[in-house]
Each structure stands twice: as structure tokens, then as C-alpha cells.
RNA sequence: GCGCCUGUAGCUCAGCUGGAUAGAGCGCCGGACUUCGAAUCCGUAGGUCGCAGGUUCGAAUCCUGCCAGGCGUACCA
């Protein structure tokens, strides 16, 4: 589609030049910025639209007049295309046969690589996402984070980037000590096994317990702080407890990742990187980048960029979130010198990242300019806000299980449990499609409301609906295979793809690589979800209105099957980028 | 108070670097199964694009002010 536009841009420039010559304009010059080729608002108008407002000044005529006169020039040598004028626009309807042949052949030969671009070829991009705390299981907010992180990574890779997905396990700090302390006080030696609980949920129980307890017992905070000091000092008993409980949480969280199709290339642990951070801050202090208060705390003065003063080390010498993030960034760049590092982190931490990036710059790391905070908004349920303090957080595992249950109910109601094969696997795949699509349908920056019931619905703009299109095509292709013998004499003939809807479908397929590239440039999976819906919608209308296999014209049927196969390929490629599992049957 | 973000149909969301009558889904109402899976498709109704100015041939889109909401402004993460 893009080549097509470039091709016509050249034609237009040539036409404009001869038009200028014949109308006596000497100082004619048009650059490619002025000449913008668009897509008409309605397909009947054509495939390419050329607004001619810019030409009004050059030719001193109204755009509509120019359009009318320019038409003749453009038609010369381009007889296959239909050029029409509509007010200030010239619309071009291209010869679709040629495009269809080219695009469908390309899709068939490139297969699952179709849509990949080289726009970020070999760029080393690190993506940090998920970053759970080891004191509780993942909640709905993490699920959005994971969806975005995984999807953005796949999109970047599809654009040729060398992507490294990293997870920073937040396994140290005062909040970790809180669940440890509660377990020590109230755990009575129980384990996830003994209680029959998923291990991360088991730990989370004690984090909640701490918060209840600390309300009645004001000393709790001090005890937690003392535990943090003991931990940083390497106290053996505290360390042992810490290791035990971290294992529980991490094991449980990894199970959730496995269920939701999230994977990483490397794990970092704050318990390891915070020391680097501390050391760098001490170095910075010596060099006078930071300053120390009388109580021993170390600070960065950011008033020069209109930010506040920030603490980097507490008066008792223990480190903070910022401290370890400094260490983590440095450790990462040493391990794998990235050209860009994308932090997928909630928008509530914008200020934190502004500070972090600035401090790294002050410390003299030039790559600090390559850091980017991809921030996303909060997720709430229809019935209200998620607040961890009020215990209204939506647990990720529970939510996912609920989606699976709804998917199963739907399959059972349609009496398809037999036809589907592995029911457990299918319900999981449908649940995942529902979850990822719903989460990625909204641009990352915005807050959103997650409606589980709506997400799993099989009709409307949902993941399962898209999945259904893939399954329907698969079903059709199975039937085609069964009837293959009757097509033995048939030949593919692209001139057969002549209806308006086929034209639309061909163009939609053709534009896919551009969509992938835009999604990569904008770091926005929403481009892909939006595209998927448009393609699916077009296709569902097509197969509903057109009987393909029973066509008496076998050549036409065979050609249409080629188109349908291509659509399935594009769907699959796009599914992958937004975490929708492909199902042959559902 | 200050900083960042958001405000588009009853609800949930699109609308790319300003361009042709502002689009989907859900919900509402009304149609379409002897057909490749009706888990679908088609149609009707519904919008002062938060408000007011400004820039422009042209603004939902850019600028300014105001209003409303969210988030941040911790020796929490």
C-alpha cells in the first residue's frame, strides 16, 4: 500500500510539473511534505486521495479548479486507474488486480514474517516490565503491565529490533519486611503446602495481616524497619526467612506468567542491584553531585530543574527505591549496552522516572538520554476503584480463573465441548484473548475500566470475537481440503477479485506492515488491536455474504480461497503481537 | 499550592504528524439461519467533540484561559 502511494506521489509530481509549465508558472517547486496522499473517507471514492489545498497559492486558483485541470495530466499514461475529482480532492482508484496478485503472493511466501519491517533493524532495545514485589501476588494492574510489556516487545521485534525483555524483582525493602514480620509473628510454621494455597497468595495473606496488625500496634513500623536494617546487615535468620518467602512468591508468580503467556530474557533482583546503587551514590557524594545532611542522609538537589530535593539514602544508611533503580540501570547497561531502555511502569511513577533519569545524567552516564518511561494508566473495575489498602484489589489469578469459567459456560451452552477437543486448553486460550485484547484496546496512557463480562463476550469488539474469525476461516479451509479433488483443474486468477469488499480486504492486508511499523514507533499495541478488529469485521461480512466454496466458477472459488488464506495469515501474525492465541476450533 | 495526565453518543473506547457529512462496540429498537460454524451479519435512533477565546482557507486535533476528574508532590514502592 505504501509503495502504491509512493508510486502515485511520483506520478503526481510529474503531472504538477507539466501543469505548471503549461500554465506559465516559472518558480514551481513542490516538496514531498506538501504533497500528502491520504485515504478517502469512503471506499467508493477511491483508494488514494490527494488534497490540493497547498497548490492554491502556487497556481493562484482554487483547489477545486486545480483538481479539475490536473486530472487530465494525471490520466495520461495511467489508463488502468480511475481518476476522479471531488471538490478540492483528486481521488485515485487503482487497478486492484495487480495489487492483489502482489500482496497475496507476498503473504503466502513470507508466512508468519509478513508484516515484519526493518524500521528498527538491529536496534538493541531493552524492555522492562512486570516488576512484581515479593510480598503479594499479581493484581489486575500487573496484568495490564504484562500485556503492554509483552506486546510492545513483540511489536518492536517485528520491526527488526533486537529486544531483551527484563523483569526486575522487587525483593527487598520495607514492604517485603512487613510480610516477613507478620509471617514470623502469626505464621506458626505453616507453609503454602500445609495450607493448600498457591504460594504467592500464601505470602500475600501475611502482607494483609501486617496492615491489619499495624493499625492496632503502632510499634509495628519500627519493628519492620529494624528488620530491614538486619536484612541489609546480612543477619542469617532474617536472610533465611527472606529467601524462603521470596521463593514462595516468585514460584507462584511464575505460574501466573506461564498461564498468561508472559516470558522474560533476564531477571534482575533488587536485592543484588541495590548495592551498586549505594556505591554509585557514595561516588557521586564524593564528587559533589549529591550532598549529605547532618543526620547522615544523602540527597540530590533537583531544584535546578524545578523539581524537589530527593533522598537517596536514609539516615540509617539503608537504601530506597530510587537508590536501587540507579544501581539496576547501571548494571543493565553494563550487561547489555542497550540503545534504548523502555520502562513499562504505571503513570503514578512519572515523577520518579524524571528524577531517576536526571540523576543518572548528573552522574555522567550519557546513555541516560536513551531511557524512556512508557507509562500506563490505572485499571479499575466497573463497580469501583481498586485500592490495596481497602482490600478491593482484583487478584490476577482470580480474574483469569473467572474468565475461564465464563468461557467454559459459553462453550458448554453452545454444546461444543466435544468439538473443541481440549476444553481446558481452549477455555484458557479464550480467556487470554479476552484479557489481552481488552487491555490492549485502550491506549496505554489512559486510565481504563476493565469489564470482565464484556471482555469475554463472544460478540462485539472483543478478543474472542477475533479468535472466532480465525476459527471460522480454519473451518472453511478444512472443508476446502476435503473437497480439494473438485478443484484439480482450477487456476488462480486475480482478476476474479473484483467486488468492493474483496478490494477492501486486499487493501487491508496490504496495509498491515505499515500498521506494525506505526505501532512500533508509537509503542502502542492499540494500533494492532484496532487493525485486527477492522480486518475481522470486513472478513465476517465477506464470508456471510459470499458463498465461496460452492461457487460454480471453480477458478473464482480457488482465487477467493487464496484471499481467505492470506487473511488468516495476517490475522495470526497480528494475534501474536497482542497475545491472542490462535484456535483452529473454539 | 505546584507538576503531569485525562475530558468525544446512556456506558466502554477509536479518531495517525490539523483536512471531505466525527467513528466503533455494548445497550435500545427492527430485520436475516434448508447455506463454509447465527459465538454471526444487516439496518434505525443517539454527539453544542468539558466551556470560552485564539491561530488557520480549514481545528476533536495546535496555542491560551477557565471548569471537572485522576495521579504525583514520603527517610513507601
Main attributes of the structure:
586 residues; 3-stranded antiparallel sheet; RNA-binding; Gyrase A, domain 2; 10% strand; flat; 21 helices; alpha/beta; 5-stranded parallel sheet
Compute the number of helices: 21
The percent range for strand residues is 5-15%
CATH topology tier name of one domain? Gyrase A, domain 2
Shape: flat
The proportion of residues forming helix, as a percent range, comes to 55-70%
| Cα end-to-end separation | 33 Å
The first-level CATH class name of one domain: Alpha Beta
The CATH superfamily label of one domain reads Arginyl tRNA synthetase N-terminal domain
Instruction: Kindly state the number of beta strands.
Output: 13
Average pLDDT confidence is: 91
Uncertain spans, ≥5 residues at pLDDT below 50?
none
Any guess at the CATH architecture of one domain?
A: 2-Layer Sandwich
Strand order of the largest sheet: 6-5-4-10-11
Radius of gyration using CA atoms only: 29 Å
By secondary-structure content and strand pairing, the structural class works out as: alpha/beta
What would you say this structure looks like, in words?
The chain has helices at residues 2-22, 55-59, 63-75, 96-110, 140-158, 174-186, 192-195, 199-216, 220-232, 236-260, 270-286, 321-335, 350-362, 396-413, 417-420, 423-440, 452-456, 463-482, 500-522, 526-545, 554-577; strands spanning 48-51, 82-86, 89-93, 124-128, 162-169, 266-269, 291-292, 298-301, 309-313, 340-346, 371-376, 379-380, 448-449. It has 586 residues and is α/β, with parallel strands linked by helices. The chain has a domain at 2-94: 2-Layer Sandwich (Gyrase A, domain 2), CATH 3.30.1360. A hairpin with a 5-residue loop joins strand 7 and strand 8 (298-301). The two termini are 33 Å apart. It binds one RNA strand of 77 nucleotides through strand 9, helix 13, helix 14, strand 13 and helix 18.
Amino acid at each position: 500500500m505504501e509503495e502504491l502511494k509512493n508510486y502515485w506521489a511520483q506520478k503526481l509530481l510529474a503531472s504538477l510539473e507539466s501543469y505548471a509549465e503549461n500554465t506559465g508558472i516559472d518558480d514551481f517547486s513542490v516538496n514531498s511534505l506538501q504533497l500528502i496522499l491520504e485515504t478517502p473517507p469512503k471506499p467508493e471514492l477511491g483508494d488514494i486521495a490527494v488534497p490540493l489545498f497547498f497548490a492554491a497559492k502556487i497556481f493562484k486558483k482554487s483547489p477545486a479548479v486545480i483538481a479539475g485541470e490536473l486530472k487530465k495530466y494525471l490520466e495520461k499514461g495511467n489508463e488502468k486507474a480511475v481518476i476522479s475529482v471531488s471538490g478540492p480532492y483528486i481521488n485515485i482508484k487503482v487497478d486492484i488486480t495487480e495489487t492483489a496478485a502482489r500482496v497475496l503472493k507476498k503473504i503466502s511466501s513470507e508466512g508468519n514474517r509478513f508484516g515484519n519491517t526493518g524500521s528498527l533493524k538491529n536496534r538493541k532495545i531493552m524492555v522492562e516490565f512486570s516488576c512484581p514485589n515479593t510480598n503479594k501476588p499479581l493484581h489486575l494492574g500487573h496484568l495490564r503491565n504484562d500485556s503492554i510489556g509483552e506486546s510492545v516487545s513483540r511489536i518492536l521485534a517485528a520491526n527488526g529490533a533486537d529486544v531483551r525483555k527484563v523483569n526486575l524483582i522487587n525483593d527487598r525493602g520495607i514492604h517485603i519486611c512487613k510480610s516477613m514480620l507478620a509471617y514470623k509473628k502469626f505464621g506458626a510454621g505453616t507453609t503454602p503446602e500445609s495450607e493448600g494455597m498457591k504460594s504467592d497468595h500464601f505470602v500475600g495473606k501475611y502482607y494483609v495481616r501486617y496492615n491489619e496488625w499495624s493499625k492496632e500496634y503502632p510499634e509495628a513500623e519500627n519493628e519492620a524497619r529494624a528488620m530491614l536494617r538486619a536484612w541489609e546487615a546480612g543477619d542469617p535468620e532474617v536472610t533465611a526467612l527472606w529467601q524462603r518467602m521470596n521463593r514462595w512468591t516468585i514460584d507462584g508468580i511464575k505460574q501466573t506468567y506461564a498461564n498468561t503467556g508472559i516470558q522474560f530474557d533476564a531477571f534482575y533482583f533488587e536485592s543484588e542491584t541495590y548495592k551498586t546503587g549505594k556505591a554509585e551514590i557514595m561516588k557521586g557524594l564524593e564528587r559533589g553531585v549529591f550532598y549529605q545532611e547532618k543526620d547522615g542522609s544523602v540527597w540530590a538537589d533537583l531544584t535546578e530543574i524545578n523539581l524537589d530535593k530527593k533522598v537517596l539514602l536514609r539516615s540509617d544508611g539503608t537504601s530506597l527505591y530510587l537508590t536501587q533503580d540507579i544501581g539496576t540501570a547501571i548494571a543493565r547497561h553494563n550487561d547489555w549496552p542497550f540503545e534504548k531502555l523502555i520502562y513499562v511502569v504505571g503513570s503514578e511513577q512519572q515523577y520518579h522516572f524524571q528524577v531517576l533519569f536526571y540523576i543518572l545524567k548528573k552522574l555522567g552516564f550519557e546513555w541516560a538520554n536513551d531511557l524512556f518511561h512508557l507509562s500506563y494508566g490505572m485499571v479499575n473495575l466497573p463497580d469501583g476503584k481498586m485500592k490495596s489498602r481497602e482490600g478491593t484489589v482484583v487478584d490476577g489469578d482470580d480474574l483469569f480463573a473467572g474468565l475461564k469459567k465464563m468461557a467454559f459456560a459459553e462453550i458448554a451452552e453452545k454444546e461444543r465441548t466435544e468439538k473443541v477437543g481440549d476444553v481446558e486448553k481452549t477455555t484458557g486460550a479464550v480467556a487470554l484473548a479476552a484479557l489481552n485484547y481488552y487491555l490492549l484496546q485502550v491506549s496505554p496512557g489512559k486510565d481504563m475500566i476493565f469489564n470482565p463480562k464484556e471482555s469475554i463476550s463472544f460478540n462485539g469488539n472483543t478478543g474472542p470475537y477475533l479468535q472466532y474469525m480465525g476459527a471460522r476461516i480454519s473451518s472453511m479451509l478444512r472443508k476446502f481440503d476435503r473437497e480439494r479433488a473438485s478443484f484439480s483443474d482450477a487456476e488462480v486468477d486475480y482478476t476474479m477479485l473484483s467486488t468492493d469488499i474483496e478490494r477492501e480486504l486486499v487493501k487491508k492486508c496490504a496495509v498491515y506492515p505499515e500498521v506494525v511499523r506505526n505501532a512500533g514507533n508509537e509503542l502502542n499495541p492499540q494500533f494492532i488491536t484496532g487493525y485486527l478488529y477492522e480486518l475481522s469485521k470486513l472478513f465476517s461480512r465477506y464470508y456471510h455474504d459470499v458463498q465461496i466454496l460452492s461457487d460454480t466458477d471453480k477458478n473464482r472459488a480457488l482465487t477467493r480461497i487464496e484471499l481467505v488464506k492470506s487473511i488468516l495469515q495476517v490475522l495470526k501474525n497480528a494475534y501474536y503481537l497482542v497475545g491472542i492465541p490462535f484456535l483452529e476450533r473454539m
